Amino acid sequence: GVTCFNDMYFFPEATAEAALRLGMRAALGILTIGFPSAYASDADDYLNKGLATRDALRDQPLISFCLAPHAPYTVSDASLEKVATLAAQLDVPVHIHVHETRQEIGDSLRDHGVRPLARLHRLGLLGPNLIAVHAVHLDQADIALLADFGGKVAHCPVSNLKLASGIAPVAELARAGVCVGLGTDGAASNNRLDLFREMNFAALLAKGCSGDAAVLGAHDVLRMATLNAARALGMEEKIGSLVAGKLADLCAVRLDDPWMQPCYDPVAHLVHVADRTCVSHVWVAGKPCLAEGNVQN
């Protein structure tokens, strides 16, 4: 049931190859991180290799890119400033893990004198292109910063639970007008990578934390998984909703299995009953990628 994903990891060219083979849309991260790996030797090497991959794939309509500094605690001020400059020049999103754990915030206060989001603001990274991944431990000043500067949030409820990171204040973010999309994080902290499961957990956690059963209704959560996510990637004019003139990225979900009955509200069923096994068909840019549960590419 996924037609487009945003990824941050080593070897983005391999991710692009897999996505193109399946016919999926992918927004790939140009990673920046302050330690060596099998992929790159230092922060500049990461950037240079990612930018070279972007140049090599610039004619692929299903592939786009974002800048992806891993996290404030793994990237220096100098590298973050470089990312901010490149993001402005290229007009691409900036995908960064931020405010995921309490320790991250304590370390930032010790080492930089400010909380991580305030540091990103100081370095010129806080704006409409920012995708703050996780954003679990936010105070009112953090939420106000995101709202005032148009930052987006990628909410990854299952990963946050598996790692005992905490529960993001999604209801408060929504009330402040912050655009929140849904994510899964990587396979190491999320074994299923099932956005139906993420929708369900997002809704239940928000209700449980707030004590209000009306918080984050099914339509709100479905929007987080679709149009809000497209908006975070700067792609809302092309994908994210079924509107004339947009690209035909869509999926069909079976609601007729016995365990799906009775169905009084299809949207509530998508959030609270269905899972990925219910997806029967997927199209990306109008091309069939899944038919009757069978991969077509």
Walkthrough of the structure:
Helix 9 (195-210) packs across helix 10 and helix 10 (218-225) packs across helix 12. The protein is an alpha/beta fold and 297 residues long. The chain is globular, with a radius of gyration of 19 Å. The two termini are 15 Å apart. Strand 1 (4-7), helix 1 (12-22) and strand 2 (25-32) form a beta-alpha-beta unit. The chain contains twelve helices and eleven strands. A four-stranded parallel β-sheet has the order 4-5-6-7. It has a four-stranded antiparallel β-sheet with strand order 8-9-10-11, with no helix packed on it. A three-stranded parallel β-sheet has the order 1-2-3. The chain has helices at 12-22, 43-56, 77-90, 102-112, 116-122, 140-149, 157-162, 170-175, 195-210, 218-225, 227-232, 266-272; strands at residues 4-7, 25-32, 63-69, 94-98, 130-134, 152-155, 179-182, 250-253, 279-284, 287-291, 294-295.
Topology summary:
Elements: E1 4-7, H1 12-22, E2 25-32, H2 43-56, E3 63-69, H3 77-90, E4 94-98, H4 102-112, H5 116-122, E5 130-134, H6 140-149, E6 152-155, H7 157-162, H8 170-175, E7 179-182, H9 195-210, H10 218-225, H11 227-232, E8 250-253, H12 266-272, E9 279-284, E10 287-291, E11 294-295
Parallel strand pairs: 1-2, 2-3, 4-5, 5-6, 6-7
Antiparallel strand pairs: 8-9, 9-10, 10-11
